[in-house]
Structure prediction request, 210 residues.
Amino acid sequence: MLKRIKDLFNRKKEPSVEDKIDSLYDRLYNDPVLVNIGEDLSVFENVFLDIIHELREEVNDECGFIIPKVPVVYNSSLQENEFAIFIRGEYERSGFLIPNEEGIKDEFYETLKTVIYNKMDSIFTNEVAERYIDTAQRKNGWLIWNITRILSVPDIKIILSDIISNGKSINDIGYIFEKIGEQILLDGGYQDCWKVHNPHNIAKQVVKAL
Prediction:
């Protein structure tokens, strides 16, 4: 009898429906990019993952940015052949697909690519910007030290994401920071650390120089 009572106390509680929904919402906000799919599309999960892998490689080649992993999750609230794309937990785009491999590839690839480029400022985080700064610093520490005295990490994040959104690549990150440094010099130099530099304007000038 004592053993049965102990087992009852130690038994793990099954998550409720509300717990499962809360878990899904937690995931929505943790994933930079998330794809939800309806029932008829769920059997094509591997097709979606292959398309996402191909798109990640293409975007990396085009602009030097690696898209974070994109989970594909079945969502029972969607219609059978519907998909929805979320960016940072916010609904961004949805549509309907012909539930076969060719139909999915034709529509989904371009839709996801368009959303990613349009929302680059949300996907490209300060943490990602810091990685690019670290990479550039290994190539030219003095330049990066001067730039980071003038521009904050959020400023640099805006500049880099703006460059990508304008169809340019940041793959040669050392060269990109050289152009950022040149624009700072044209915009008043490195002497006044308190001067406010507009990162969007810097990005526009860098884009013109690329």
In short: The chain is about 60% helix and 10% strand. The chain has two domains: 13-123, 126-209. Residues 45-63 form the longest helix (19 residues).
